[in-house]
Structure formats: structure tokens, C-alpha cells
């Protein structure tokens, strides 16, 4: 593509330079190749405009910048370089990427999933249901990316638009017709999903999280709401919302330009769960649908996964699956890594690894565990920690949630990042102590997992919460390999 064709597609204030052939797009100067257009934009932690010279030295063919001073400097020092000045760097990145890559976003029906809890599982379920009827999909989410049958490492829950569109383009190349994406509040607010037309938008729930970034629950909600307003596009055709959640009800009222589909346990939900029966590794319930009642059976466990199944069912129905196809597909879904992941054991103790890292998610996880051990008077042992450099106000709340529902709490380190692990655990410990539940503090996570499992007897359930699918632990002095499920499996084998 020639820059003279590309630049007019931008909402640019100015542009200059003769036309040059552009073959790719980059926003990271380290990845620039000859022929790329380099989009220099201001970010949260760095300013890409500082790396324009580095990009040019690597062969960048053109520059798009959101800095007037950088644009003027190019005019003085490199007047031969084709350049455009834009007001919004991230929007420009999306516009340039879409144009250069041939607009793959227009060739995929996109289902976007947002909310505090359940995004990952719901996205996996939607993809699984779509694949069960033979559709080729792209998945972008927290755990991994999928391009057809290829699995890729996930760098971010919702990456920059250039990277999203590159995955979309790869998907189109292998025949994909559907895309499913988790859309985080950060990505929505930062406009990393600018210009992506959403066919179906799903809202799971909203509970306290990320207030270190958003500040207040209303600002956090406003970021999530952007998915239903359209981020540089028209609103989604369909909004699938949780009627049991107060913020979901608000979205249902506000999404006036979308067809609203509701789900939940409450009367009036179009996809409604009734008569739930569950055990470890299986959930059964009656699902009311616009076509009548059906019996759902899934290998996923728990009330939270009933919500996820309802949300995915509503989305799949709006993507053209029949109710019978949804029932058949739900029965075939696989285990989602780090989401109520049962670690194999033959000593009568159930060990579960889960990503629960908010007080609400922890409370739901423990409630499910309590329900599972009740028939044989088993105990619930909960291991958790709190992330460093994140919302501190939720730490005592997580401690209280763990203490209120558990028979024993093991408090440990999560990803302390730059904070002192002892200071983090002290804040969480205050919440546990307020409940009077016995708590063992062991900051070494490996040692804590061993303590929790060795404390369990046949019939008990051990919950290892907080990190889920993660394969590393982030410390002040670097990143180390750490896999909760692998460590738990090692301890069980020793026993």
C-alpha cells in the first residue's frame, strides 16, 4: 500500500512527504522492518515518539506521530520522510493497521466479552460452541490465543490493536469466520480495540477490581460500558447481559441501540437456569430459552460456570446455533486451564487451582467448595495471596472472604512485584483475623501449597487461588517459573 493511499484514511491534522510503499505496521521500534510504517504514540509508561530515530534507522518507510514537536522535528531534520500528525495515537494505530492488513476485522463476526469475573471461561465456551458446529475461530484472551487449531502464547488479555488485527488476519488466512475476544477495562478505556465492529457483546458481572487504575467503581463501570457503546464503531448488534448483576441491569437499560438478551437465575431472564445439580467435574441444570426448556450437562463445575454457560449460550444462539446444538456443544467443552482446575489425586483429597483474585470471586469459589464437601462433612482449606502494585483496598476484603467460608486459611505470596511480600500479607491477614478462622502464614508459595495439602484429609477440598493458569511468579528482582497445578501435583505424588 502506498502512503498516499494510507494517510487519507487517518484522522490526521497534517501530513507531508512523497508517497512510499508501506508493507507493515509497528508501534515497537525494536520490531520495525524495512517498509513498515512506525506509529509513534504516547502510552501509559513510555512515549513512542522517543524512538522515531531508532525506527528510521531500521528502515521505517513512514512515520505516524501524535506529537506536534516530533512531527516538526521530522520536518526540519528528515523532510524526505513521509509523515502524518494525528491527535489520537492509538486510534491511528488501529486505522493504519486495519488498512495495511486489508481490514480483517470486517471479515470476522466478533463476540466481545467483558466483566470482572468469568471473561476467560465464557470466551472459551463461546469458541467451543461455535467450533462444535464446524466454524473456524480466532480466540484472544488471558490464557492463550487461538488461530483455528493453532494455539499461541498470550502476551496480554487484550493486546494493542495492531497485534489483534494481525491475529485476525492470520485467522482469515486459515478460513476463520468468527472471532471471540476478552475485552478488559484497560483495553476499552485505552482504546486498544478501536474500530473493531462487535457483533455480540457479553457482560458477565462487575465487582471490585482494578481500582488502582480506574479509581472508582463508576469509572470502572464506564470503561466496561464502552463495549456496549461502540469503540470507534456503531454499538454491537446484540448485548448479552447478566440480569442478576446490578451493573448488568444498568447496561440492559442503557443499550438502546442493541438487541438485548438477558441471562441469569432471576425470573425474566431469557436464558435462565433452574434446578442446578452439581458435583466435582459435572454440572446439570434446566435452561429456559426462547425456544423452551432444555437439560444442560457440562463437565464444568459450579454456579459461576452456570452463569458462564448461560452467557455463552445466549451469544451462540445469536450467532445462529440452535438450542439443540448448544446443548450438544456444552456437553463436549473441555477444562479451562486455571479455572476450577482439579489436580489429579488418589488420596481422597480434592485439590483445585483457580484464578479467583477478587473477594467476590474468592467467596464464590469457596461457596462452591463448601457445597461439594457438605455430603461427607469435608473441610475447605483455602490458600490465597494478593498481588503487589495493585488495588490495596481489596486485600482485607479477600482475607475476610477466605476466613468466612473456610475451615483453614493458608495465606501466602501471589505476585508481589515491587512490594514487600510481608506488607501485603499483613493487610490480607487483618481480614482473616476478623473472622476468627485459623490462618497459617507462609510467604513462600511452594511451601504454602505443601502446608495446605498436607493439612487435608480424605473428603477435604484444598483451594489454591489467585494465579490459576499463570506459569510464572513476578517478584521484585525478576520473574521466576511457577505453576500452581504443577507444584500441587508434585506434592500429591510425594504423599
From TrEMBL:
Show where the Mur ligase C-terminal domain sits.
338-468
How this protein is processed and modified after translation, per its record?
Answer: Carboxylation is probably crucial for Mg(2+) binding and, consequently, for the gamma-phosphate positioning of ATP.
Task: Tell me the superkingdom of the source.
Answer: Bacteria
All copies of the Mur ligase N-terminal catalytic domain together span 21-96
Q: What is its EC number?
A: 6.3.2.13
Signal peptide positions on this chain: none
SUPFAM superfamilies tied to this protein: MurD-like peptide ligases, catalytic domain (SSF53623), MurD-like peptide ligases, peptide-binding domain (SSF53244), MurE/MurF N-terminal domain (SSF63418)
Annotated binding of meso-2,6-diaminopimelate, by residue: 390, 414-417, 466, 470
Instruction: Please identify the protein, giving its name as recorded.
Output: UDP-N-acetylmuramoyl-L-alanyl-D-glutamate--2,6-diaminopimelate ligase
Q: Which organism is this entry from?
A: Granulicella aggregans
